[in-house]
Amino acid sequence: MKVIMLAAGVGRRLHGDENDDLPKALLRFGGKTLLARHIEILRSHGIDEMVIVVGHHKDDLVAEVAAIVEAGGAPDSFVRTLFNPRYKESGILSLGTADSVMRSGEDVMFMDADVLYHPELMVRLIRSDHRNCFTMDRDFEFGDEPVKVYLRGGEMFDFGKQMVDGYEVIGEWPGFMRMSPEIAVKVADAVKHHIDNDNLLTTYEEAMRDVLVSEPAGTFGYEDITGIPWTEIDFPDDMIHAQNIILPLIEKFDPEES
């Protein structure tokens, strides 16, 4: 299985529009960057290759990868980077940069770079019986910001930031999903369609939703990761929450008790 991780953005909501701060993948928690944590977790659970889409401060991300390799955290062949020269314009362009990976004929794991989480979250997804699978957390605060997973009759039927009616269970998406080769190609097609039509205000989540709602019921499954410590880091308050609340929870979390 290959992993696509998007790490090209400038972190506007965290640092401001014209910032020169390091990418969020290089934020440190417990002495490790988020990127080092991602690589350690993925390497420990059978991932074959990690492809990182870079943009903002790309040289710093490449340097961190080199430092991780030099320290023995990963072989040279494990991580490669793809540069999105239009990284300031739209996140969907970053996923479009990884088009060849989506069309590689292998299972693909998608992940955001700005998430601090316990390894059990990734283990649930990697070991899931669902080849096309979202993660969802039922314990979240309602609002416009969270990307949501909607279930009805035990199956996913919608996905995105928008609120929809008719759901029986709702949860927040932590930013990780896996795709079979067939579905990865369809997501790549949806992304390409939006880019070709200059729909750059469209998010990559909307491209994923295009495929979800067009496929037969049951094509996509989900893993309920409620109770596993994680947080996405978008705003300054998220940094404080990650450092003071989530990191201590990660350090004492026991998957056997979850």
Primary descriptors:
23% strand, three-stranded antiparallel sheet, 258 residues
What's the CATH superfamily, by name?
Spore Coat Polysaccharide Biosynthesis Protein SpsA, Chain A
Strand content: 15-25%
Order of helices and strands: EHEEHEHEHHEEHEEEEEHHEEH
What is the class in the CATH system? Answer: Alpha Beta
Q: State the end-to-end CA separation.
A: 26 Å
Low-confidence stretches: none
The major pleated sheet works out as: 7 strands, mixed
Number of E-state strands = 14
CATH-defined fold name: Spore Coat Polysaccharide Biosynthesis Protein SpsA, Chain A
The CATH architecture category equals Alpha-Beta Complex
Give a brief outline of the structure.
It is built from 9 helices and 14 strands. The protein has 258 residues and is an alpha/beta fold.
Describe what this molecule looks like in 3D.
A 7-stranded mixed sheet has the order 5-4-1-6-12-8-13, sandwiched between helices. A 3-stranded antiparallel sheet has the order 10-9-11. Strands 2-3 form a two-stranded antiparallel ribbon. Helix 4 (91-97) crosses helix 7 (181-196). The protein is an alpha/beta fold. The protein is 35% helix and 23% strand. The mean pLDDT is 95. It has a single domain (2-257), classed as Alpha-Beta Complex (Spore Coat Polysaccharide Biosynthesis Protein SpsA, Chain A). 42% of the residues are buried. It has helices spanning 12-15, 34-44, 58-70, 91-97, 99-102, 119-126, 181-196, 204-214, 236-252, and strands at 2-7, 28-29, 32-33, 49-54, 79-83, 108-112, 115-117, 133-136, 148-152, 155-160, 169-172, 176-179, 221-224, 230-232. Strand 2 (28-29) and strand 3 form a beta hairpin. It is globular and about 50 Å long. It contains 9 helices and 14 strands.
